[in-house]
Amino acid sequence: MQLKTPHKGLGLFGTADDIAVQRSIAEFQGGRPVVVAAGNERLVALPVDGLTPAAWDAFRALCPDAATLLVVTARRAHVLGLETPGPVLIPLTAADTCDEIWSLAAGLDGKMRGPLRAAGAAAAQAVVLAKLAQRLPALLVADAACVAADVRAQMITVEADSVQRFGARIVETLEIVSEARIPLEDGASARFCVFRDAVGSSPVAIILGDPDFTQPVAVRVHSACLTGDVFGSRRCDCGAQLKLAIAQLSESGGGVVLYLEQEGRGLGLANKMRAYELQDGGLDTMDANMMLGFDDDERDYGVAARMLRMIGANRVLLLTNNPGKLEALSEGGVDVAARVPLHTRINPENRRYLATKAARAGHWLEDMLEVGAPGRDTIGSPR
Question: What pTM was estimated for this model as a whole?
């Protein structure tokens, strides 16, 4: 029986469009296909991340009468030798193995094959879904019309427009869900304020000491780095920067560290390890990300701006070497009164990484790279 008026309890679920996007992300995380629709185009899509021979056989059996294609990003297409403004569709055959598909999607030895065609809105937004699920941005796709009706009825269907709108609105779904005081080493006092968004991310605002929010507040925007922050990896400067920032904020009377769930420049932990493996093969950090089909930096600092506004820190002294963070906070409505350099010691394992950030991403590290072992800057220096 169909209800003539919406049931009041449906308010618990949100909009139908948002539900479809969230469930599609969960399906991709679980290794299951979804249908992405755009106008008359309906594609069944499955990330190649984690693809097994059994899953490859099952996908072809799901769409027995349709051509199976691989959608890759423009970044990946460039690596394969094709300049294109957007994602492209690469034809596959039943003879292709999982290794050959992976080679096309992310391998060093991948070679473009034809005939190619530009991906439509459905395939392009399937790539966005894969990124939201922290999967590799490469997917198997086929015409969903060739899937048996009873099977298609069991699959989540999502509109491409809904994915596009959802991605742009995620930051607006942030809310503060809990907070508590946490004593840190060296006697530092901190209050951990945990946020949550519509895809389950839990960024944290760590308020150190007792900062005066009526004045410019010292802030460090820090992307999570399991290897550096927890295990002291020498491949990057993340852990050292976090420790230095906490020490400087504590010594100066207080401030805020925003700890964002944007591991590996926004790629996610698994893809970060894949990028590291490519770096071990000779690529720098930016080329490794693009080899996998990502932009060189997938992070979105809009979340940081919203977190700061929500805790009342509207004017900040930003501890960073990254010009992109200043621009993003300013665009997000936060007044950056000054920048404070955050220079840590260089070691042989992270020198190339830091040099790449300086030369290719414009990070302010020239002085640090020249001296090799810089001292500590004072919070408030308007550099």
Answer: 0.88
